[in-house]
Every structure is written in structure tokens, then in C-alpha cells.
Amino acid sequence: MRAITKSERKRDNSVGCLLRARGEETGLSDEEIAFYDALAENESARQLMGEPALRVIATELVKSVKGSVSTDWMHRESARARIRVLVKRILRKHGYPPDLQDAAVQNVLQQAEALSAEWAT
């Protein structure tokens, strides 16, 4: 295991502070911000949907995905498919642009993979 350097700790701390500040500003948790960013990565989706709608979707995604992931979901294709369908349904329910959904689903799954380690502990 590699030791974390002082500069890495400082960088991680500053990123954490930025997330907390954004969270206070938007009313979103760090997890919701991660999903919001995954959805808003596409500029046209952000313009079309608007920030309030993306915040609602991000909040629903956190609740649904967090409640559906298992410890080994990343390694089981059937579990990944279930999460993928869940995300698509939520996006469709809220009117996320269909032509941008595939990229958004992939972004959300990547965020879920990163966050699921924290959820498992």
C-alpha cells in the first residue's frame, strides 16, 4: 500500500471543501453532486433540462442506485444490467433527452462504481 503524500492530502481536502461548498450552495450531498455532474456533463442536456430538474434527477438516482447496489454488483453483469435499467427509467421518467441517455447512463454508472466502495463500508 502506498502512503498518501502531504500534497495529495491537501488536494483531497481542497476538493472536499469545494464539494461541501457546492453542496451548501445547491442543497445537494456529495453523492448527489457526483450524479448531477454526470448528468450535466453534456451542455445541451444541462440547457434543455435546467439545473433544478437535474438536481431532482440526481437526488432520485442516489436513493435508487444506493438502495440497489450489492457488494459485487460491478462484477455481475446481471446486477449491472439491473442498475442500468433503473437509471434509464429514472432518466426517461424525468424527460432526459433520449439521444443523450446512453452517455448519461455510462457516466452515472461510473460514478456509482466510484461511490459504491463508500456505500459498502
Structure, explained:
The chain is globular and about 35 Å long. It has one domain. The chain has helices at residues 6-26, 30-40, 43-49, 51-68, 77-93, 101-120. The chain has 121 residues and is an all-alpha fold. Helix 2 packs antiparallel against helix 6, helix 4 (51-68) packs antiparallel against helix 5 (77-93) and helix 5 (77-93) packs across helix 6.
Mean pLDDT: 81
Radius of gyration: 15 Å
End-to-end distance, in Å? 19 Å
The number of strands is 0
Beta-strand residue fraction: under 5%
Any idea what the shape is? globular
Note poorly predicted spans. Answer: 1-10, 14-19
- Major β-sheet annotation: none
Number of helices, where a helix is a run of at least 4 consecutive DSSP H or I residues: 6
Alpha-beta classification? mainly alpha
Helix % is over 70%
User: What sequence of helices (H) and strands (E) makes up the elements?
Assistant: HHHHHH
Count of discrete structural domains? 1
